[in-house]
Structures are given as structure tokens and as C-alpha cells.
Write a structure and sequence with these properties.
heterotrimer, A: mainly alpha, C: about 450 residues
Chain lengths: ~280, ~325, ~450
């Protein structure tokens, strides 16, 4: 059974895994080695630390408000991820299963919007939010929700496309069968489509999560001291004092790994939803 | 995660409330059945509204800016900045290195994407079937994509500096590495680093796509006695084409618009060989304070990207195999 | 209609969601008695900076009954983005701490308070400050936006052991002399100079210094003078150190300032020009701790043995931070009170003791001259010279660095190619002039 489903012969599988892990691992390993090295040695391009010290992993928490930054990031990116995946699956379902005028245009426009550079939109988006805030009397700039709304918008086109690509491949018979059984659209969506789309949903969620997680451009102007995200907080480590002390490279690397950890852990937890075989979804 | 700040506790409500807002419109649709079009379209409204405020309106504002002589002297009262019509566009094409930058960005993005595709697909293939430690390997593959761009830039800058680890390694092989962060070879460095940080996106999509393939297809292929190469070529890869094509487009767009990575890797001003578009528009806007000119540059590049993209999209199948019509 | 109901439901969900989540925002400036200050994040003294923020806040609360909140930025571009968005929206920090060379650009935006005589009085008067530090506050003494806050003059670190071993008693005071000493000190895996050719800022400071010493301030009367022979000579000298004199590690083509400091710190270079006093923090942790000293950089231009007529013996650009007050601020008087508090001799001494940055307060600065450890740095502070005060200066700066960036491939090949250098300078000149012409 397993051999039937195997895609690659065992030696090739092992060889490729080793190669890929090396490609990922070599630079990441360097990040780790640098994180336990001294700043001067890192600046000098030293590979193996002469003296290993884990002090950087302690110092990062007091140099910058990293804990609060991580909490903000998790909150913002998490909200974006969940909302984005949910909205995307609905939109994609409508776009794939319903025919209406302009449907193709909507789909193409969605992707077209992905090509607008963020730097072009930064100032107008900011001004727009500030204006809305001033005229409605609600705080916008500096709040987490303004950031959530922004990322949600940037994440939606791509997430919708992922779901469109995914839903499109769902066998129509499954849906027809459900309909024959008397299920309405809503039930079909919740009972048939969503359970079958987990792999796509996880990818859409991960993508939109990372959008919020890694963005610096919008977060740096749209947050204040309390709502600053981890990516913005991290930037401080790259700052060199003009003509003076070198940047705290060791802490930068340590903080980068610490900030990558939650995402990797989340994926580790969620990847069990990326399970193979549509028929395994058990809707028959 | 523990929320230490009590004030933040109500924020997850955002997600719930919005999801409810989107989900609630569904029941009305039930009555008219899945074939109805009109009402279903309204499901797209929340997304449309967001898109309008965060993308469309700001984009129109940016278009207006590109027609103004907007710089640090006129910025404060930007609406009364002198209107120069196509002036910024003429200057962008004729008197800046915009055409060169478009070429550098575009070609590097294409090559880096072509490098990332096989890596991503291979990674997906190796983690498709279960094995001990698969979940860990799957997660490790994600790391380059998860590290913040400026850290990726910083680490590669240190690796690639003239006396850095890369050249030390090459020297032990008897190769003189030379200059990677300036001069002709910096273009290679740009491609390699972009591909390195971009391939997990392809992997994510390819993996999800692989999981969507019906097991019975594998069984059918096995019954036909197909070897793995044949199965891969005739069954698996064709089915992977849509998600991988999507991954290719998205990674292309990301790489063309990637700012932080080249900015940190090569610094500003950019060496000529890696003078990429986003850094050029950024410098024009945030260092030279020529906002109008910068907006015009971004619009030109946007159009140049959009045209081939839309042409390509016309060839993409948008419908489900048997759409319920 | 179904559609309308769907839309209403969506709108309702949104309007419910917004106020709920809006509650978690920090309440700033609600009572008009809060001042927001934007200042550079200090990565070498992060905890000290936090304590300083708290101290200032507590003291100001006591003095003026108002709160001060500090926001930090990581890079100059970060700050610029913040300034732009704040200017456009009319909300943001009340006070900004700006780098000196950015003050002309900030002035040209017209977004900051042009201090009146009355306002100067409120912050203790112009006399409170070292005259040299006021050199880049505005285009002239009656139009000033920048209030000098801290001073970071550039000096040159040198390795005392290496110099002594080569029989050199003190660093040269001319650039030609420095090159000669660097030649003497190069060898056995060591180099005379550590210079960051790959840095985004360092190169222009060298070119500016050598040019103004030879009588060319690079910008005068709205005209750029980048192709002036003395400037060409400056480039040839600066690039020549690595390419032809071979007194700099060839790897320096890729160095940023940090790598140059690391090389000096490892004892691989004898001189480290263009560093500020904050380099002490790094160097005291390096292999050369206790073996190095600071001296002012040469003040006699390349090719000369004494300062030529018209030349200015500048040791450094006028470097440090100015405070500016935003015009959109609704708390300008309060902001002036805070600035007054921050520039008293007492506050400045606390700041200097904490961060090692020199004061701008004249009374305190004159007291510090007596400290021998600071001699070179204080000396440089008094001989520092302001860069041209022009709204287009940041473009000139960028054009100057660009010449070096694009020369790096030639540099790595061991040559200073005059043809390509001239071509690059001609291009830089026209770009700089175009930026200057746009001034309004």
C-alpha cells in the first residue's frame, strides 16, 4: 500500500532530503553559531565561535521589549491568519461554484493587486487611516486593528487564489452527492468543502500569518510603543550607532531565531491537517 | 501564548466578529440554492470593502501624487503641490536609472523563481509520504521563509563579504571568490539569496497540492505498472501544475517587489548591477524626498508587471472541472 | 432583499468589531498634557536608556505636571518615514531628535517650529550652547529650527602599540603624512588603515573633510562643486589607500563601519579614522582594549603640507543630535519647557555620564575640556564644521557615496580609474545640482 503511494525511490528520497536540509541548514546554522558568538567576532566574519556564550538569549529580552512584541505579533498575525483563511474559503467557494458577470475580472484583479508595491501605498494608507480616525473620532494609527485590517487586505487576494486553486480541483461528484442528500449550500460548504480543504486552508493561513509576522514597512508607522510588533522591535538590533559601536549582531541572530520559533512550532502543530488523499477525507 | 497585557485580551474578538459577519449572509442563499448568482456575490462584499479602503483608494491617491511635483518643499500642503502632468513620468524614464532597474529586478526575479520551483517541488515530494521525523523536516523547510528579511540580508551579507565564510570555503577548494556584494557577481548573489528565502513558498503550495491528489490515481498508476519516473511525469506533476503556477506568480511578484532583502544585502546607494526597482523608488521617496517622481516610477513598474501578468492570467483555467452551474 | 441583508449584516459586524478592538489603544495626548518625543534607540545602553526615559518623565511631571512618553526609532529611514506620515496627518511626536546632517532637510519641509527670540529665551537662550554646535541649526542665526542636544564629533582611533613598534610618536596631522605612516605600519598581515568602503555614510564624510580643507565646501551659493579638482584629489586619495597604496585590507571593499571597527579591534589595523566616542564601548571589549587612543583626524588636505588659503581646518562634520519641535504640536510651550530642562548643564551631565555623548551646553562642555581622556574628542568638537545647510543636501550626500559604491569593482581590481571616476563625478555633479535647483 505504502509503496503504491510512494513518489520517490528511497535512496533518492533520502538524498534529496539531505540536500534540502543542508541548503536550509547551512545559513541557519550560521545564524545559530553567530547567536552564541561575540558581536566583534560576527562582524569579523568568524564562523566557529571561540567562546560559546548563551548570554545573548538572555539579553534580548531586556534590550528591547521583545516579549510584548511577540505577543502583539501573535495577536495581529493570528487574527489575520484566521480571518483571512475564513474569508478566503467563502470567497473562493463563491468564485468557483457560482457563475456571475465579472467573476473572471474579480479573480484577475485579485492577483493584479498583489503586484502593487507596498512602498507606493504606505503614505496614502497612513493618511487615509489618520483621516478616518480623526473624522470618526476613533483611534486608528497606533492600534492593532488598523494593522489587522491592512494585512487582511493584502493577504486576501493571495489566500483567495490559493483556495480557488484548491477548490477547483475538488471532485464535483462529492458536492453533487451531498446536494442529492438534501444538503444546502451552507451545509455543503461546512460539511464537505471545508473538511476537504484543510491543506489549502493551512497554507492560506500560514501565508497571511507570515505577512503580518514579517512586515516592517506598515507596522513601523502604524504602531506605537504598546502595539509594536516583533519584526519592528527586532529592527533595533540592526541599528548601528553612527560611526561608533557595532550593531549587536549576536543578539540580532538570537532574537531572529527566537522569533522564528513560534511560527515553526505553529506549523509543527498544524501540519497534521495537511493530510493526503481526498478520499481519506471520508465524505463518501 | 499567554496574553500578559489584559488590554489586549479583547482583540481576538476582531477575528470572530468579522468571521461571523462574513458567515452570516450565507443562510439566505440556501433558499435560492447553490445555482443562484446574485446573492452569492454579496459574500464578496466585506473583502471588496476592505480592498477599496486599503488598496484602491490609496492607489488612486498614489496616482494623483505621481502627477504632482511633490517633494519636501511642497509635501506639507500636498494637495496644493504644483501639477506637472506627465512630467514625473518623463523624468523617470528619461533621466533616472528606472529602465535599468526594471530589467535587473525583473530578470533576477524570473531566474530566482526558476531556481526556487524545483527546490520547492522536491521538498514537497520528499515530505509527502510519512516517515519518522517528517513533521520536523516539514517545519525546518519553512525556516528561510520565516526569518525576517533584514536578518536574512544581514546574515548573507556577513557570509558573502570579501573575507567572509563563503570566500573562505571557496578558497579551500582553490577558487578565488572575489567580490559578491558589488560588481557583476552581486547579481548572482541577489538571485541566490532571493531563491533561498523564497523557495519554501513553492514548497508550501506544492505540498498542499500533492495532498489534494486522489489516492485512487496512485493506485491506477500502480496497476498500469508505471515506474516512479513515469508516475511523477504523467500523473503527479501535471496535477501539481495549478498550485505551482500560482506559487510561481506569487513568488515572482514578491521578488520583484522585495525591498528589505536587497536593501540590507547591498546597502544604499545600490551597486549598479543590483540596482533593483523597490530600492530605487524607496531611495527616491524616502531619501531624496521626491515623492511624486517615486510614485510615477512605481506606477510605471506596476504597469510593466501587470501587462504580462494579465496576459498570462487569460490563459489560466478559472473554472472547476465540472462547475455546478 | 437578501443582498441588502447580507451587506447590513457585514456592516454591522464591522461596526461592532471596530469599537471593541479600539478600546485597547494606548491613550496618548488625551488631556493635552502629554508630550511625545521621538529619539533614536540606543542599542549599546538599552537599559540605561529606559532608565533615562523614566527619570526625565518623572522630573518633568514634577516640574511641569505633564507626562513625557518616548518613542524610539531604529534607523534614519525609519525616522524619516515617521516624520513624513506625521507631517501629512498632523499627528505624531511633539519633539524629534534629529541627526545634524538631516536638519537642513527637515528645515526645508517647513514642518518644524522656526524659533523666535522669545522662544529661544524660553529654552535658556542661544548663549547656553557651545557656539560650534549651533552651526547646523538653521540657514542663518535668525532662522533656526534645531536646538543642539548632543555632540558626537568624529575622531581617529589608533593602536598605540603598533605605532610605538614602528617608532611613530604620534598620528600625523596631514593626510599625506597619515598615508606615509600607514605605509610604514602595513605588513605582516596588518594594515595601516581600517576604512569602510562599503558603508552607506562614511565615505562622504572623508570626501567632504578633504574638500573643505582644500577650500571647497562642496555646495556654495546653491551651486554644487563636485567636479572641483580638490574633490577629485580627495577621491583619488581615499580610493587610493586601498587600490594603489595597499594600506587597507582588500576585504574592506565590502566593509561597513562595523567591520572596520572589528578589524581595528582585532589588532589588524593601526588607524581607524572616522569613528565617534561611542566606539569606545566596542573597543574596550576587543583585543586592543587599553592599547588604543583617540586623535583628531588630519586637517591638512591631500597634497599639501599646511592649510591652503581658503581652506577650513575642519576635524569633523558637525555631528550629533538636534531637537526640533513639530509645528502641528498642540503643546509647543510645553515642548519648549522640556527642551529647556533637557539642555541644562545638570541634565546634560546626566546624559553624558550615561551615554558618553558630549554635551552641547557651553558651561558643561567647558568644564569637560579639563578631562585628558576626552581631550582629542572635545578638541574635535570645537573644530568640527557644519555641512552645507541646504534642503537638497541629502541628495548631494547620496551622490557622493554613490561615486565610491560604483568605484568598488575597480577598487577590488587594484586601480583608481580616472576616466570612470570623472564620469561618475560628472553624473554626481549633475544629480546634486538638479537637487539643489529644486530648492524653493
Amino acid at each position: 500500500m505504502n509503496s503504491v503511494l510512494r513518489l520517490l525511490p528511497r535512496p533518492l528520497q533520502i538524498g534529496l532530503t539531505v540536500i534540502l536540509l543542508t541548503i536550509v541548514g547551512a545559513p541557519v546554522g550560521y545564524v545559530f553559531l553567530a547567536s552564541v558568538n561575540t558581536d566583534l567576532a560576527v562582524a569579523a566574519g568568524e564562523f566557529w565561535p571561540e567562546r560559546v556564550s548563551v548570554g545573548n538569549y538572555v539579553r534580548i529580552w531586556s534590550t528591547v521589549p521583545l516579549g510584548r512584541g511577540l505577543a502583539n505579533s501573535l495577536l495581529v498575525a493570528g487574527t489575520v491568519a484566521v480571518t483571512c483563511a475564513a474569508v478566503a474559503v467563502f470567497s473562493a467557494y463563491v468564485l468557483v461554484r457560482h457563475r456571475f458577470r465579472g467573476r473572471r475580472t474579480v479573480l484577475r484583479a485579485l492577483l493584479g493587486m498583489q503586484s502593487i508595491p507596498g512602498t507606493l501605498l504606505l503614505l496614502p494608507v497612513f493618511v487615509l487611516f489618520a483621516t478616518i480616525g480623526n473624522s470618526l473620532g476613533v483611534p486608528t494609527i497606533g492600534t492593532r486593528w488598523s494593522l489587522v485590517v491592512t494585512y487582511l487586505t493584502f493577504g486576501l487576494p493571495f489566500s483567495t487564489w490559493i483556495m480557488v486553486t484548491y477548490l477547483r480541483e475538488l471532485p464535483g461528484e462529492l458536492i453533487e452527492a451531498a446536494r442529492v442528500d438534501g444538503a444546502g449550500s451552507w451545509q455543503i460548504l461546512v460539511r464537505v468543502v471545508i473538511p476537504l480543504s484543510w491543506p489549502g486552508l493551512v497554507v492560506a493561513a500560514i501565508f497571511s500569518f507570515l505577512l503580518g509576522w514579517n512586515d516592517v514597512l506598515f507596522a513601523s508607522v502604524m504602531t506605537d510603543v504598546d502595539t509594536r510588533t516583533a519584526a519592528v522591535v527586532l529592527q533595533v538590533f540592526g541599528a548601528a550607532q553612527e560611526g561608533g559601536a557595532i550593531p549587536p549582531y549576536g543578539q540580532m541572530m538570537a532574537a531572529a531565531l527566537v522569533c522564528a520559533a513560534p511560527v515553526v512550532a505553529l506549523y509543527l502543530a498544524f501540519q497534521r491537517y495537511i493530510v493526503g488523499g481526498l478520499t481519506a477525507g471520508g465524505v463518501k | 501564548m499567554t496574553v500578559t497585557d489584559p488590554a489586549t485580551a479583547d482583540a481576538p474578538g476582531t477575528g470572530d466578529a468579522r468571521r461571523a459577519g462574513v458567515a452570516r449572509p450565507s443562510p439566505p442563499r440556501r433558499r435560492r440554492g447553490a445555482t443562484a448568482g446574485g446573492a452569492a456575490v454579496w459574500l464578496l462584499a466585506p473583502g471588496g470593502l476592505l480592498t477599496l479602503t486599503v488598496i484602491v483608494v490609496p492607489f488612486v491617491v498614489a496616482l494623483v501624487m505621481s502627477l504632482l511635483d511633490l517633494d519636501q518643499y511642497t509635501f506639507r500642503q500636498w494637495l496644493s503641490a504644483p501639477f506637472v502632468g506627465a512630467g514625473n513620468y518623463v523624468e523617470a524614464v528619461g533621466r533616472t536609472s528606472l529602465p535599468h532597474a526594471i530589467w535587473v529586478s525583473g530578470s533576477a526575479a524570473v531566474i530566482a523563481t526558476l531556481l526556487a520551483l524545483p527546490l520547492g517541488v522536491a521538498a514537497a515530494l520528499t515530505t509527502h509520504r510519512p516517515f519518522r521525523g517528517r513533521s520536523l523536516v516539514r517545519s525546518l523547510y519553512l525556516i528561510p521563509y520565516v526569518l525576517p528579511a533584514f536578518v536574512v540580508g544581514t546574515i548573507w551579507r556577513i557570509i558573502l563579504q570579501p573575507d567572509g565564510v563563503a570566500n573562505q570555503g571557496l578558497a579551500t577548494l582553490g577558487i578565488a571568490g572575489g567580490l559578491w556584494l558589488n560588481g557583476p557577481k552581486s547579481y548572482l548573489a541577489l538571485i541566490v539569496v532571493q531563491a533561498w528565502s523564497g523557495w519554501p513558498l513553492v514548497y508550501l503550495l506544492a505540498l498542499a497540492g500533492l495532498q489534494g491528489i486522489d489516492d485512487s490515481l496512485h493506485e491506477a498508476a500502480a496497476l498500469d505498472g508505471a515506474q516512479w519516473q513515469a508516475k511523477l511525469r504523467h500523473v503527479v506533476l501535471p496535477l501539481l501544475r495549478p498550485p505551482v503556477a500560482l506559487a510561481a506568480i506569487i513568488s515572482l511578484l514578491h521578488m520583484v517587489n522585495s525591498f528589505t532583502l536587497p536593501f540590507v544585502l547591498f546597502g544604499v546607494p545600490s551597486p549598479h548591477d543590483v540596482e533593483v526597482l523597490p530600492v530605487l523608488t524607496y531611495v527616491e521617496s524616502f531619501q531624496n524626498l521626491r515623492f511624486g517622481l517615486s510614485a510615477a516610477m512605481a506606477v510605471i513598474s506596476l504597469v510593466l508587471i501587470l501587462v504580462p501578468l494579465l496576459v498570462y492570467l487569460r490563459t489560466v483555467r478559472l473554472d472547476a472541472p465540472e462547475a455546478a452551474a | 432583499m437578501n443582498a441588502t441583508r447580507a451587506l447590513l449584516a457585514a456592516a454591522l459586524a464591522l461596526t461592532v468589531a471596530i469599537p471593541v478592538t479600539a478600546c485597547d489603544t494606548g491613550s496618548s495626548a488625551e488631556d493635552g498634557r502629554t508630550l511625545n518625543v521621538l529619539i533614536a534607540a540606543n542599542t549599546i545602553y538599552p537599559t540605561e536608556q529606559k532608565r533615562w526615559f523614566a527619570d526625565v518623565s518623572a522630573k518633568f511631571q514634577q516640574q511641569a505636571g505633564a507626562k513625557v512618553t518616548f518613542e524610539t526609532f531604529a534607523s534614519p529611514t525609519d525616522e524619516l518615514t515617521k516624520i513624513q506620515t506625521s507631517m501629512l496627518s498632523g499627528q505624531g511626536p511633539d519633539i524629534y531628535a534629529l541627526g545634524t546632517t538631516f536638519t537642513p532637510t527637515a528645515y526645508s519641509t517647513g514642518a518644524f517650529v522656526d524659533l523666535t527670540a522669545d522662544q529661544w529665551t524660553k529654552i535658556g537662550g542661544r548663549d547656553r550652547f557651545l557656539p560650534a554646535t549651533l552651526g547646523i541649526s538653521g540657514p542663518d542665526a535668525t532662522h533656526e529650527v534645531g536646538i543642539p542636544f548632543s555632540s558626537r564629533p568624529f575622531v581617529m582611533a589608533y593602536n598605540k602599540e603598533l605605532l610605538a613598534a614602528a617608532g611613530i610618536d604620534k598620528p600625523a596631522s596631514t593626510w599625506d603624512g597619515l598615508r606615509q605612516q600607514a605605509r610604514q605600519l602595513t605588513g605582516a598581515g596588518r594594515y595601516g588603515l581600517a576604512v569602510a568602503y562599503g558603508d552607506g555614510f562614511d565615505p562622504w564624510k572623508f570626501i567632504w573633510a578633504m574638500s573643505i580643507q582644500a577650500g571647497n565646501p562642496l555646495v556654495s551659493d546653491g551651486k554644487a562643486r563636485l567636479t572641483d579638482p580638490v574633490t577629485v584629489k580627495a577621491y583619488q586619495t581615499y580610493l587610493g589607500w586601498l587600490a594603489t597604496d595597499k594600506v587597507v585590507d582588500p576585504a574592506a571593499t565590502g566593509w561597513k563601519n562595523a567591520q572596520a571597527i572589528a578589524a581595528f579591534g582585532a589588532g589588524k589595523a593601526a588607524f581607524l579614522p572616522m569613528v565617534s566616542a561611542t566606539s569606545k564601548v566596542t573597543l574596550d571589549k576587543s583585543a586592543v582594549a587599553g592599547k588604543y587612543g583617540y586623535a583628531v583626524m588630519p586637517t591638512v588636505p591631500p597634497g599639501a603640507t599646511s592649510l591652503p588659503p581658503g581652506g577650513v581646518g575642519a576635524t569633523s562634520i558637525l555631528s550629533g543630535d538636534n531637537l526640533v519641535i513639530a509645528k502641528y504640536s498642540k503643546n509647543q510651550d510645553l515642548a519648549l519647557r522640556l527642551v529647556n530642562m533637557l539642555t541644562t548643564a545638570e541634565s546634560q551631565e546626566a546624559y553624558y555620564r550615561t551615554f558618553g555623548e558630549l554635551p552641547t551646553n557651553a558651561e558643561l562642555a567647558n568644564r569637560l575640556v579639563a578631562d585628558p581622556a576626552l581631550a582629542a574628542i572635545v578638541d574635535s568638537a570645537s573644530k568640527a564644521h557644519g555641512t552645507p545647510f541646504h534642503g537638497g543636501w541629502s541628495k548631494v550626500q547620496l551622490a557622493l557615496v554613490n561615486v565610491v559604491v560604483q568605484s568598488v569593482p575597480n577598487l577590488a581590481a587594484g586601480k583608481v580609474d580616472d576616466t570612470s571616476l570623472n564620469a561618475l563625478l560628472t553624473q554626481a555633479q549633475s544629480e546634486a545640482q538638479a537637487a539643489l535647483d529644486k530648492a524653493k
